Amino acid sequence: MLQAHKPGDVVQIRFRQRGVDRTAPVRLAADPALQIVRTEAAGGTLTDGQKAFREAWLGAE
Questions:
Q1: What is the pLDDT of residues 7-24, one digit of tens each?
Q2: Dihedral in degrees, nearest 10, Cα atoms 7, 8, 13, 16
Q3: What is the pLDDT of the chain when averaged over all its residues?
Q4: How many CA atoms lie within 13 A of 61 on its CB side?
Q5: Whole-structure pTM over 0.85, yes or no?
Q6: Under 8 Å between Cβ of 11 and 28
Q7: pLDDT value of position 34
Q8: CA 30, CA 22: separation in Å to the nearest integer?
Q9: In the chain, helix, strand, coil percent, each to 5?
Q10: What CA–CA distance (Å, rounded) separates 53 from 59?
C-alpha cells in the first residue's frame, strides 16, 4: 500500500482502540535516516551485470 503513496500524502488508517473500531488520517513522512549512495561510495564494487544495468538506465558515466 505504501508504494502507491509518497511523503506528504494523507491516508486513512483503521485501527481498534479498546475494542472500538476507529479511523484516523495519517500524513506520510520520509525516513530522514534513509540515504541513497552509490555502491562505490559505500566501499563496494559493481558486478559486470550491475554496471550494464546502470549504463542502460542512466547512461555511461
A1: 999 999 999 999 999 999
A2: 90
A3: 90
A4: 5
A5: no
A6: yes
A7: 81
A8: 25
A9: 30, 25, 45
A10: 9
pLDDT band at 60 (very low <50, low <70, confident <90, very high): low
Other Cβ atoms within 10 Å of 6 Cβ, number: 9
Cα angle value 28/30/31 (rounded, 5°)? 125
How many residues in total does the chain contain? Answer: 61
C-alpha to C-alpha distance for 49 and 29, rounded to whole angstroms? 34
Placement of cell 542502460 in the chain: 56
25-47 pLDDT per residue, tens: 999 998 888 888 889 999 999 99
Whether 28 and 2 have beta carbons less than 8 Å apart is answered as yes
Say what the pLDDT of residue 58 is.
86
